[in-house]
């Protein structure tokens, strides 16, 4: 897995504090950013947290580049609907010889690892064979329509991908560019940094949190699983490790 913070709102802590200042002070737009010292920025952000007033936080946004993750993760992350996603297309991108993500629990068992790898190899071979069959069929059809051999081949390859991809596994790798505002990230981290979250998206969420803390430390000081600031939201399904979790994210 590789995660990069591609772009983000500059001085996000200060911008959100300015939005909070607008809500609670008489300052006009022209003087809004004046006298926002580090202490006042921290004070405004603490006030927002105490009041549960999160709308000013939406003014800060963060864009991540993500690769080396599975299509299984993609199905989970796109459930976070207040976000923007661009995803590598299996329709337009040839996935011959695709990379894949192996769950650690499988890789820990030699026999399971071997079986998994063989299945990935089999899926890749089936994908290649189906794609070849489809390319041949579509090339003939495009030639019959009057396209040149080069044009027919190029169009056939793209058309073949969209049906051959149906045999690709959830383990198949993908690449994502994702943008979220800070308020959506709060929700994302609360759910996905939790020990109860699936291992792959939990690893992604924790790395994203580490990155945003590096550029907006005050804004994300309390971000993380729900048990950092209150009781566990998982109820009877709690991992029961609140002390360890709090220490982990305090040290992050």
Which key phrases capture this entry?
single chain; 252 residues; alpha+beta; Gyrase A, domain 2; 2 domains; 4-stranded antiparallel beta sheet; 9 helices; 12% strand
Describe the structure.
There is one protein chain. This protein has 252 residues and is of the alpha+beta class. The chain has 2 domains: 2-87 and 173-250, 2-Layer Sandwich (Gyrase A, domain 2), CATH 3.30.1360; 104-167, no CATH class. It is 50% helix and 12% strand. It is built from 9 helices and 4 strands, in the order E-H-H-E-H-E-H-H-H-E-H-H-H. The chain has helices at 12-24, 38-51, 71-77, 104-107, 110-144, 149-164, 182-192, 199-215, 242-250; strands at 2-8, 61-70, 84-87, 173-181. A 4-stranded antiparallel sheet has the order 1-2-4-3. Helix 5 (110-144) packs antiparallel against helix 6. The radius of gyration is 24 Å and the shape is flat.
Short description:
This protein has 252 residues and is α+β, with helices and mostly antiparallel strands. Helix content is 50%, strand content 12%.
CATH topology of the largest domain: Gyrase A, domain 2
Over the alpha carbons, how many angstroms does the gyration radius reach? 24 Å
Number of helices: 9
- Cross-sheet strand order for the largest sheet: 1-2-4-3
Segments where pLDDT lies below 50 for 5+ residues?
Answer: none
Overall number of strands: 4
Largest sheet: 4 strands, antiparallel
Mean pLDDT: 93
Distance between the termini: 19 Å
What is the share of helical residues? 40-55%
CATH architecture of the largest domain: 2-Layer Sandwich
| SSE topology string | EHHEHEHHHEHHH
DSSP strand content: 5-15%
User: What structural class do helix, strand and pairing data support?
Assistant: alpha+beta
Name the assembly state: single chain
Number of domains: 2
Broad CATH class of the largest domain: Alpha Beta
Overall geometry:
flat
